Amino acid sequence: MYKNITQCFLVEDFYKLKDAIDKIDIEDFFSKYPEENKLHMRTEFQELFFSFTAEEIYELKALLTKAHYKIKIYDNIQNNLN
Question: pTM for the full model?
């Protein structure tokens, strides 16, 4: 569902989103706010607004982790070519 969410992000923006998502304690948030069905987030400039269910956050965490490793592989290849 969210495979293209970071497609046009700069690397710095990608890591801002990844860091924010990684800091979320999903079970804690939804147990503290049981009436909430989604967790809502905005970017620092209020331009992007995201709403995620708990299942979507788990999925997004997995996708961001996979993307992080792909970035690291790309960086390593680039460094080895230089």
Answer: 0.76
